[in-house]
Amino acid sequence: MTPLAAIAGRAYLQRNRELVDRLLDEYCPPVTEEPRSLHEAMRYSLMASGKRIRPILCLAAYEFCAGETASLPDGVKKAMAALEMVHTYSLIHDDLPCMDDDDLRRGVPTCHKKFGEALAVLAGDALHVVAFELMAQTGSVQAVLELTTAVGTSGMLGGQVADIEAEERQVSRAEVVNIHTRKTGALIRGSVRIGALLANASDRELSRLTSYGEKIGLAFQIIDDILDIEGDQRILGKKVGSDCKNQKATYPGAVGLDRARGDAARLVDESLSLFPESGDNILKYLARFIGQREN
Amino acid sequence: MTPLAAIAGRAYLQRNRELVDRLLDEYCPPVTEEPRSLHEAMRYSLMASGKRIRPILCLAAYEFCAGETASLPDGVKKAMAALEMVHTYSLIHDDLPCMDDDDLRRGVPTCHKKFGEALAVLAGDALHVVAFELMAQTGSVQAVLELTTAVGTSGMLGGQVADIEAEERQVSRAEVVNIHTRKTGALIRGSVRIGALLANASDRELSRLTSYGEKIGLAFQIIDDILDIEGDQRILGKKVGSDCKNQKATYPGAVGLDRARGDAARLVDESLSLFPESGDNILKYLARFIGQREN
After folding, report:
1. How many domains are there within chain A?
2. CA A175 to chain centre
3. In chain A, at which end, N or C, are there fewer CB atoms within 10 A of the end residue's CB?
4. CB nearest to B141's CB, from A34, A125, A136
5. Average pLDDT of chain B, as a whole number
6. What gap in Å lies between CA B59 and CA A185, rounded to an integer?
7. Does A7 touch chain B if contact means CB atoms closer than 8 Å?
8. In the predicted model, what is the mean pLDDT of residues B144-164?
9. Which residue of A has its CA nearest to B145?
């Protein structure tokens, strides 16, 4: 990647994180409206700083297929916000005492620490609903179905269950790949596919972008596991060592840290090689960003 | 209502409860598929006997607008199953220790009592997703949006929050009506409206059925409150006295038992008077059934 492309990539990421923050603020019900406490809890978790990588991948996939347009269609904006909302709902429920029992997330106390468990369960449920509302407002039934596939029992929720059931025992690499592909990979894959679908991508493009999403989705979670071991809590915004404490199945746990790093790098390289015809592009930048991220 | 109409009504209810049970079995992922434990928990709560009143109201509204057809369209079947799934998800989360902390539901231990809290949270989330998947498979974006309105923060979830926040204090009739209209009424209203929408009802019919849904929705929850005071646990399938124990805002608590009974009866009568042109019909039977139910 040329230095100029890296600068352009960083600017893209920064600009669109700000866009996502604005969209979330616009589409999440305001705290001035009843039920205020629920809206406050939803916004608390949603507006805490996040990488916003899922909506940005959706946007990048859309622009890759449709070309950059003067103004972004409302449907794409709504899909972007929906993806971040559904991700945030999963974090809120995942952090609950009966699940991973985490106190810190995105640099602030977790939703249940701040608002109590009942409101945290309901805030997660409510973000889940608003996500489907926004996705339906794209007008695309296919986009709604893509989201249900990503977060349903064969996707994210199935991965969360497998993750819980793999605790406290030694698991194989194949098993961790299976967990990670569903728990984290499915929503990242779905984000990319929804962007492509909203751009009316051809089957060939959709298939290529699906492979891209699968590769960077798995790489993302491998890096997550590595950062949980050797990351910096101040940069991460969540406690490190949580996986070890909870005796989670992790990729480095299955194959060791060195091979984990190597496999993540290989997945990123494979995702780059899906675009042999083009020079630098934003999808490539985002893949590299995922491979090198520190939070 | 003539004795013949009452017999026909009971048969309709019985026949379509069996239909709903078959649809839920068909559309809920099987326990032979991974994640088995999650699918088992979903099915446990879903297949425990229920009144199935929401899907049956959806069906009755559809048939009222479209006429009875030789074979029911798949979209209507899917919407019916979706409504029961979304209702069951709300019961599972509502029963959690951090919420109402109930041990018994539909005559069997609650989901978290049987499977633990983590799996209960996830089973609720998963039923929520499958509900949206089925609703999207009707092909009607409008039906999906109707469901999000019914269960979102201005509907069911908002009502649950208001319900929690009203605990342990005296509330006015207006406040209880507001809570009940959202907590229970919104999904019953939505069930009726979705049936009408799938039948391409005219604006006039949709508006009339919306009034019907609102009236019987509120009546349903008033009766629920009354049954929690003087119902039979063996018939109800859940513990009585739960509202009192949890110091919930109830309609009889606000206005007394006698007036509560009178107001429920009046709401049922008003719902019947919305159909002055027809003799007995199933919607009228269902309204009376809601007014007289013992579980």
Report:
1. 1
2. 21
3. N
4. A136
5. 94
6. 38
7. no
8. 97
9. A133
